[in-house]
Write a structure and sequence with these properties.
Helix content is 45%, strand content 16%. By secondary structure, it is an alpha/beta fold. Strand 2 (124-130), helix 10 and strand 3 form a beta-alpha-beta unit.
Length: 257
């Protein structure tokens, strides 16, 4: 399935580097906030989000935090990161373009940069965007409609949604695993729902920061070790040339759980 040239051009790497796929204008319109006022809020968005967190990472409340507490604050924090780190994100999109095909799962997809870019790829049939935050889902759905991608992208709360396919050709999970209460268990879910010839694009940052600036990151040594043991037993890393923290994997045969 190919994508109309006009949409592919709108979501090119050049367009990401220029304005993040019109991210600031999209967010301003969606939130009904003046663009100038929005720009003033973005620099403090990361500290504002951290201030909402109750303290130490608590696996019992982490889902509630992202689904009910962060609200629009997560959109602002993600927008600031994407606009200030465009060169890095451009390489993650180049990596995605190298591997993405068929049915793509964007797990914890945030503001939708990768989901929208994937939906514009000719080798991709459909993107299944999954995110706990209802405001993230609403924004990404709104952006997809605005960009003419609504028929190639759908938004869902979690993987239990029966609308999702049983298995995916590509799984994208960026800047998410460190926010989960059991990232090793999530790897097993990915392995079980990835086609044997599919690929998973993953990164992680199990660190709360030198000054505790990431209180919402898991950093328990035992869980981190279990994560790496699970990763090494369920996936084989695939080389790619991009100098980024994101890595590509294909599933090891067997190990279904």
């Amino acid at each position: 399935m190919s994508q109309p040239p006009s949409i592919a051009a709108e979501l090119s790497i050049d367009q990401l580097l220029l304005h993040g796929f019109d991210l600031l204008q999209h967010l301003s319109t969606f939130l009904e906030v003046d663009p100038h006022d929005l720009k003033q809020r973005l620099p403090s968005s990361s500290s504002d989000l951290a201030a909402l967190h109750p303290g130490a990472f608590d696996p019992l409340t982490v889902e509630t935090f992202y689904e009910e507490t962060v609200g629009d604050g997560h959109l602002l924090e993600l927008a600031a990161w994407h606009l200030s780190s465009a060169a890095y994100i451009a390489d993650t999109l180049r990596l995605q373009a190298q591997f993405a095909r068929g049915h793509v799962l964007d797990f914890g997809g945030g503001i939708g940069t990768h989901a929208l870019a994937a939906a514009a790829l000719g080798a991709v049939e459909h993107v299944w965007f999954v995110d706990l935050n209802p405001r993230n889902r609403a924004f990404v759905s709104w952006r997809a409609e605005r960009l003419g991608l609504a028929d190639r992208l759908s938004c869902h709360r979690d993987l239990s949604d029966p609308a999702l396919p049983r298995a995916f050709d590509t799984i994208v999970c960026l800047d998410v695993l460190e926010h989960l209460k059991d990232p090793a268990a999530q790897l097993k879910v990915f392995h079980n729902r990835l086609h044997h010839d599919g690929h998973a694009l993953l990164n992680w940052y199990f660190f709360r920061g030198f000054a505790g600036e990431y209180p919402f990151h898991l950093d328990d040594p035992a869980q981190v070790e279990q994560f790496f043991r699970t990763l090494q037993s369920h996936f084989l890393e695939v080389f790619h040339p991009w100098l980024i923290t994101t890595r590509a994997y294909r599933p090891m045969p067997g190990n279904a759980e």
